[in-house]
Amino acid sequence: MTEQIKWEEKALTKYNLMLGKIPLFHRELTKQVVDKEAPINAKERNSARVEDEDIVKAFLAEVPKQFYSLMIRLMDDVGFDYKKYEGKK
User: Fold this and answer.
1) In 34, 47, 54, 65, which residue has its Cα 20 to 30 A from 5's Cα atom?
2) Can you say whether the dihedral through the CA atoms of 12, 17, 20, 21 is positive or negative?
3) What is the radius of gyration, based on Cα positions, of the chain?
4) Is residue 81, in this structure, part of any structural domain at all?
5) Alpha-carbon gap, residue 35 to 74, rounded angstroms
6) For residue range 18-61, what is the model confidence (pLDDT) as tens digits?
7) Does residue 1 sit within a domain?
């Protein structure tokens, strides 16, 4: 059994706020993808916890392009600084 990585509290709060703003029909799929990818991103950074960077990178890498503008608007709304991670995984 693998050890569950912890989520930094402020990052998790912003993520949950963002999830609540995503249209219902996309919310569960988004949660599944980001909940899987963000911890992978944290481990790749050799971090013991998921932080803003990991969540933002998961969204940027996995959200389809047709939803990009909505995702960016929601990141702005909840306080994720995505600009420095655009174009990176």
Assistant:
1) 65
2) negative
3) 12
4) yes
5) 17
6) 999 998 988 999 999 999 999 999 999 999 999 999 999 999 99
7) no
Q: Given CA atoms 43, 51, 67, 86 in this order, what sign does their dihedral have?
A: negative
**Is residue 2 in some structural domain?**
no
H or E stretch including 50?
A: strand 49-50
Residue 14 lies in a domain: no
Domain boundaries, position 28: 19-85
Alpha helices in the chain (DSSP H): 9-21, 24-44, 52-62, 68-78
Q: Does residue 89 have a pLDDT over 60? A: no
* Rounded-to-10 torsion of CA 36, 38, 40, 41: 160
Give whole-number Cα distances, 23 to 10, 19, 29, 76, in Å: 22, 8, 11, 16
Under 8 Å CB-to-CB from 45, ≥6 apart: which residues?
53, 54
